[in-house]
Design a protein that fits this description.
The structure holds two protein chains of two kinds.
Chain A: E1 4-6, E2 11-14, E3 19-25, E4 32-38, E5 44-50, E6 55-57, E7 60-65, E8 70-75, E9 84-91, E10 94-95, E11 98-99, E12 102-103, E13 107-112
Parallel strand pairs in A: 2-13
Antiparallel strand pairs in A: 1-3, 3-8, 4-5, 4-9, 6-7, 7-8, 9-12, 9-13, 10-11
Chain B: E1 4-7, E2 10-13, E3 19-25, E4 32-38, E5 45-51, E6 57-58, E7 67-73, E8 76-81, E9 90-97, E10 104-105, E11 109-113
Classes of the chains: A mainly beta, B mainly beta.
Chain lengths: 113, 114
């Protein structure tokens, strides 16, 4: 089983749509969770951290369910500029003062006019 | 914000060549740097973790003699792909962080071995 699993998509949605991505992780001891965004042929950029209580940043809402080892990202009012691959990222354990990140393969989102 | 510079951004070379990629943290001292590799439509895979002044820790399945990592200072780490072959063609990305801070990624190096 992969450490971090995501639906690869693609999700093709019209502008203004609401879209949700899901992610599951295998290591129950994981401590930190993130969503990154990666544009084609570019490096990943941190979109937001994911907290147990759920958190929101503008049109983006992230949720974490530790019991189910499940993370979600909701994008409201999709924009053309949201088209990218969204990477679910997990930090399995805190060790040695540095973080080791495990990346999911990503979910592709294509927003069309 | 924190900036990590990676150089070169694109390399095309013949099989058997060794290629060096540099990763620099421009405005902070990076206690730890990470090297990742990403094949098309696949996830980023951590290759190795390096702390300044000590030997890199390689992930399982990554050959340390093939992928030489030098973290000589708090702002510079290098990855050398020795005797590169076509199967080494990939997108190589570094990241850097200070203790307690998130990782910041370089903009990647696209390596093509002919």
């Amino acid at each position: 089983r992969k450490e971090v699993e995501q639906d690869p998509g693609p999700f093709n949605v019209p502008e203004g749509a609401t879209v949700a991505f899901n992610c599951t992780y295998s290591n129950s001891a994981s401590q930190s969770f993130f969503w990154y965004r990666q544009d084609c042929r570019k490096e990943p950029k941190l979109l937001m951290s994911v907290y147990s209580s759920g958190n929101e940043d503008g049109r983006f809402t992230a949720q974490l369910n530790r019991a189910s080892q499940y993370i979600s990202l909701l994008i409201r009012d999709s924009k053309l500029s949201d088209s990218a691959t969204y990477l679910c990222v997990v930090n399995p354990v805190l060790s040695g003062g540095y973080n080791k990140l495990i990346f999911g393969a990503g979910t592709r989102l294509a927003v069309h006019p | 914000g924190a900036v990590v510079s990676q150089h070169p951004s694109r390399v095309i070379c013949k099989s058997g060549t060794s290629v060096k990629i540099e990763c620099r943290s421009l405005d902070f001292q990076a206690t730890t740097m990470f090297w990742y590799r990403q094949f098309p439509k696949k996830s980023l895979m951590l290759m190795a973790t390096s702390n300044e002044g000590s030997k890199a820790t390689y992930e399982q399945g990554v050959e340390k003699d093939k992928f030489l990592i030098n973290h000589a200072s708090l702002t510079l780490s290098t990855l050398t792909v020795t005797s590169a072959h076509p199967e080494d063609s990939s997108f190589y990305i570094c990241s850097a962080r200070q203790v307690g801070q998130p990782q910041h990624f370089g903009d990647g190096t696209r390596l093509s071995i002919l």
